[in-house]
Design goal:
Helices cover about 50% and strands about 15% of the residues. It is built from 21 helices and 18 strands. The strands form 5 sheets. The protein has a 6-stranded parallel sheet, with helices on both faces. Helix 3 runs parallel beside helix 13, helix 3 packs antiparallel against helix 18 and helix 6 runs antiparallel to helix 8. The two termini are about 40 Å apart.
């Protein structure tokens, strides 16, 4: 009961912090916002931080507090979990909330749009961000334009020129909001994403939308202000190419815009997929966009979005710490179909959900590329290892296959020849699919991998005797060739749960081979008799590498496995940041800048106009640079000290290093548990149709009739965008017809 009240209290605090932060943005362009900031500055300004203190308290601290409280809430929820129950087993009021949640998150509203499949929650997020931006932009702009119309212009000054300048001003100030939001969804271990249970691959879509929007606004701001400065060039001292020593620097803004344009162009899908290394390298120009943007607006205005950016930097620092050392490879299998299965040792305390994914980097293939792969294992089955499957399709995966096959042929190395770095795993905070009685899993090609993990997870839960979990699994898998079906041999239900045949769990597998005729039954017994496109040559043997016996066990481990340690890192980072910034202010800024001098307000924001002994204010570029140094020291030194303490605590509790066992070998034998080697697998119980694509609508009609007594089914799709859109369209059509059984649509994708 105490845990329940604690969670409720923390949720109320989180809602309060969110509303406080959002309301600050709503009053930002108003006279009430001006009065609010003036009063806050008067009440909280100190010699230690001067105006930075009030701005930190108003705009940055709420973001850090939200992240820390969210982590505490997540920790309590993990320690005191609620029992797994289906929607129909919940109290009436919670059933109502569950139905509202389902309508928001699982009902496709728009399908086939340039932005992809949009659910109600997507439209709500777009509307909320769009409304807030338009409010910040239009509320002060429209009266300003009316004032220009009512003002008598001096000779030679055109009204349109003044209006263009006003548009430039408020597009720039509205950009603060977009800059703040832009970094939220791209933090892979973000406590905010975990709190709302948004998978990282879905959050990336929000990042892309915000990226396009923010760069359009940045471009508009740059063009309008450039036009204004150009046409008033003869009457003002401003210049587009001027880096002013004090106040707003136009040249810094131009450089920020140019870096943003390069980043924007190389992020387009055409470039990103064909030239990933170019995309990856140029995407780091976000540092230039951020840095020059801060030099452009000054240190005070940077606090509007500084907290959100720092949370991303903390996440990026933790990722760098995890990925700095390679992990061991327990085994690497290359199947005749070309499929690669990798196994890694994992810290037993590190858990992940069935829809988890892990990023890996293989320097011998590409030093820069990190690719996400869904886990095909369950942390409930083997708590000290995880596995992933890789289907060679693109350039990177084909080069990975080549590096394994070439090395095996030339026999140049002992043990697995790959040096692999890992980052993650990342997964949804809760397994939402567990609350449904029936799961409809639709996969296309390599999209089968997360569903393999789901089936393993369910089998493990039945083995442990868990109740109120899915009882029916309808797996629909579309593959181009027969050889791809061998992946199903990786799962033998009876090996994981011997009583599966007499249990409630029923697994129905339907496979569709779209480019070949599946009429011949011989290949089902050995699907690798036919060569695969991108696979090994006909007649090739399976290749298996295992870890060398002279190598220590280097596990996949991450500080993200502990919510409280992450909260400590965030708290230490923000504390260190503000301490260092205060020290720099006292030691560097104040001796050259009289704090007793007056300050002035512009659009409700306070800017220091303090004059030094010679009557000159302190250079803006230097104050912003000191801000950057404070951020770096806060994250790396103060936050890094907490990470170091965590690493030392892990080392003291770690097990004795375990040695590996064998050298690389080739095998063609049926080994239990190996892909394509187990005779009692999902492939043996699958029904297979060849020669055509399935009708999703027809299949769902059959499934709907089969489970007509159920109120809702979970439909989860993973595969190409065309398949996801087809499934979403069928779900939308059925649900809008008010069928008795609702198809709740979920999707997952690793095309980031």
């Amino acid at each position: 009961m105490a845990a329940l009240f604690t969670k409720i209290a923390l949720l109320l605090i989180l809602w309060g912090l969110f509303l406080f932060w959002w309301i600050e943005w709503l009053i930002y362009p108003t006279s009430a916002g001006t009065d609010y900031k003036a009063q806050a500055i008067e009440d909280t300004r100190s010699d230690f931080l001067d105006l930075n203190g009030p701005y930190y308290l108003m705009w940055t601290l709420p973001v850090f507090l939200f992240a820390i409280v969210a982590l505490v809430y997540l920790e309590i929820r993990q320690r005191y979990p609620e029992g797994q129950r289906r929607t129909s087993e919940l109290p009436k009021w919670r059933q109502l909330l569950a139905k509202i949640s389902s309508a928001l998150f699982t009902q496709p509203i728009l399908v086939g749009t340039p932005m992809g499949i949009l659910t109600a929650i997507d439209l709500l997020v777009i509307a909320l961000v769009g409304f807030t931006f338009l409010w910040i932009f239009c509320y002060p702009l429209l009266p300003a334009l009316d004032l220009v119309d009512a003002t008598k212009m001096k000779p030679g000054i055109d009204r349109w020129m003044i209006k263009v300048g006003r548009v430039g001003t408020w597009t720039g100030r509205g950009w603060y909001l977009l800059m703040a939001l832009l970094f939220f969804p791209i933090s892979r271990g973000s406590p905010i994403l975990r709190l709302v249970n948004v998978p990282f691959e879905h959050a990336v879509r929000y990042h892309r939308w915000l990226g396009h929007f923010s760069l359009w606004i940045l471009l508009t701001h740059s063009i309008t202000f450039s036009l204004h400065i150009y046409y008033t060039g003869g009457r003002t001292t401003e210049s587009i190419w001027q880096w002013k020593r004090f106040g707003v620097s136009n040249l810094a803004g131009v450089l920020s815009m140019l870096a943003g344009i390069v980043l924007w162009v190389t992020s387009l899908e055409l470039v990103r997929k064909r030239f990933f290394d170019v995309f990856y390298i140029t995407h780091h120009m976000y540092l230039l966009v951020f840095a020059f943007g801060c030099w452009h607006v000054g240190d005070f205005s940077s606090f509007y979005f500084l907290g959100c950016v720092m949370l991303f930097f903390i996440d990026r620092f933790l990722r760098a710490v995890q990925s700095r050392k390679p992990v061991s490879v327990l085994s690497a299998q290359v199947l005749p179909s070309g499929l690669i299965k990798l196994k890694f040792p994992m810290s037993p305390s590190l858990t992940y959900s069935a829809l988890g994914m892990i990023y890996i980097n293989v320097p011998s293939v590409s030093k820069f590329q990190w690719h996400p792969f869904s886990t095909t294992s369950s942390s409930l089955e083997k708590q000290d290892e995880m596995s992933i499957c890789i289907k060679p399709q693109g350039g990177w995966t084909k080069n990975l296959l080549k590096s394994l096959t070439d090395t095996e042929t030339k026999t140049k190395s002992a043990g697995c020849p790959l040096k692999i770095f890992a980052e993650g795993p990342y997964s949804p905070e809760t397994d939402y699919f567990l609350r449904y009685k029936t799961l409809v899993l639709v996969a296309g090609g390599v999209g089968i991998t997360p569903f393999m993990a789901i089936i393993r997870d369910l089998l493990c839960r039945y083995q442990k005797g868990q109740e109120s979990i899915p009882e029916n699994v309808e797996l629909i898998w579309c593959v181009p060739r027969k050889t791809d079906l061998g992946t199903l041999r990786d799962i033998s239900p009876e090996e994981i749960y011997p009583e599966v045949t007499t249990s409630k769990l029923k697994i129905c597998v339907r496979c569709f081979v779209t480019r070949e005729n599946a009429g011949n039954s011989n290949w089902k017994e050995n699907p690798n008799k036919a060569p695969a496109e991108g696979g090994l040559p006909l007649g090739s043997e399976e290749i298996v590498f295992t870890g060398a016996d002279d190598q220590p066990r280097k596990e996949v481990t991450h500080i993200g496995e502990s919510n409280l340690w992450i909260a400590a890192v965030i708290a230490a980072s923000t504390t260190g940041f503000i301490i260092m910034h205060g020290i720099f202010h006292i030691a560097v800024v104040r001796p050259n800048n009289h704090s007793s001098a007056p300050f002035f307000f512009e659009h409700g924001a306070a800017h220091s106009a303090d004059a030094g002994p010679q009557g000159k204010p302190f250079p803006t570029a230097v104050t912003v640079t000191l801000l950057f140094v404070s951020m770096f020291l806060g994250v790396v030194v103060f936050g890094g000290a907490v990470v170091l303490a965590w690493m030392l605590s892990k080392r003291s509790l770690s097990k004795t290093e375990v040695a590996f066992i064998t050298s690389p070998k080739k095998t063609n034998s049926a080994v239990a548990g190996d892909l394509e080697g187990n005779q009692l697998s999902l492939l043996d119980q699958a029904s297979i149709v060849g020669g055509s694509r399935p009708s999703i609508a027809g299949l769902f009609e059959v499934v709907g009739e089969k489970y007509s007594g159920e109120e809702e089914l979970c439909v989860l799709v993973c595969g190409p965008e065309s398949l996801q859109e087809s499934v979403a369209d069928v779900c939308r059509s059925r649900n809008f017809k008010y069928c008795n059984t609702q198809f709740q649509f979920y999707s997952t994708s690793f095309d980031l």
